[in-house]
Amino acid sequence: SAAITISNTAPVLASVSLSTAAPTENDTLSATLGATSDDDGDTVTVSYEWFVNGTSAGTGTTLSSSSFAKGDTITLVVTPWDGTSWGSPVTSDVATAVNTPPAVSSVTLSPEDAYTDDVLTASASATDLDGDSLSYTYDWYVDGLLAQSGASATLDGATAFSRDEEVHVVVTPNDGDTDGTSATSSALTVANSAPTAPEVEITPEDAEEGDDLTCTVVTESTDADGDAVTYSFAWDVDGVDYTGATDSAAESVVDGADVGSGQTWTCEVVAGDGDATSSVASSSLTTEAACGDGLYASFEDDTNCPIAHWDMSTMSGTRVADLIGDNDLTVTGSPLAGVDGVVGATYSIASSSQYFTSIDAYPSRLSGSGSKSISLWAYLDAKGGDGDGISVFASFGGKNSDGTSFCACYDNEVGDDEPSLGAGGAAYDLQGTTPWGLGRWYHYAITYDGVTSSIYVDGVLESSRAVTLRTGTTYDKYAVAVHTLYGASTHYLASGRVDEVKVYDYALSPSQVSELSSLTD
Fold it and tell me: Tens of pLDDT along 391-400?
């Protein structure tokens, strides 16, 4: 019979199913194959081909999510092979990639130190494997109770929370399709808010020696937590702590018995709520000096003020101001201003053409044999001068030679080198005992009590004697560092300075002169 050739029979694959019909960006697809068969008993193998949206996407046994995205359709075609022939391909059901929900990984709150009126802000970190734009829902909780829910990442403490309350937020992401995994922030405890500083003032504004001083809270503190506020007062006088005040709820009073003239009082106030205090509020007041503005000794009160006082630095226009009255000094010859004085600044006199004279006559009560004094500070750069060699620091009246001048002078005549009251005729002159050095300040005072003239240097009595002075009015104005006031001779402060010139209508006592000699900055 004729030979019969038996042909190969192609293998058969029963089925193909995918690991999921709805993969996400987190998934790797695989397949489960049904049974294979081959009538010839051949060994059967298979080949894979993945299709995404109908386009070949790979031939491996699996398909990673990097090959598809949300919304893509995926199929797998598997074909059996027996080594000779390919069997019929088998196609899986269609899988459609679905949305991957987003996830919040962390949430933080700021500021970390929160107070009642602060606005808290939540900052969330989230991921979405599909790359979708995200929105968030913020559920704010205060002491465990929902206080606010919605799209706002902030919570205003002015309306939502107070001191000592705990605040946290739960943040839920949404990618437009699905809410994702929420995350919760750490709880934050609202801190105490310190009260604001008050505004305070000391009254009366024109306080004098003996007046009570009252420090009053004129604008009260506020406390954001609504806590009760109390005030603490502290005083100092001229930089020294004062503890004798009487305090009440919103004011503090210093007894007038402790208040002197020309003192600077400062009141400092802090507000407290029991846990924290405000910044310091302060007010300062300088009591009026008994004799006005200027540097005065303790005895220079309302009844013992000088009748003229030139500090040689305070100006009234182009004139040196009289701090007691209005008898200012005119300036002649352009002396150098602004040089160092014993107190503040003064002028430097360098020639006989430089001097000062008052605009008005001195009071008539200084004429004749009445009591009078001059106190000043003097500084010599050089001694001597023309004629009889007298340096005049301050004076008023007539001539030295007839006892009608009252002059704080320095005598440089041949054989003389000392301060001099009058420095003229022998019958009226009074000389000091100690020559002065150059380049230093001396306190110089001359007094007359109607009987006795006295000279003091640096607070110490140098000489005195009984003499009849008849202070005249030939030269009826005050003169400071001046020349040609005493007849034919020329007298002037050859080179030097004067400062803190005061004239009195009474004789200074030794203790008063001593206090004046120590009255500096």
Answer: 778 888 766 5
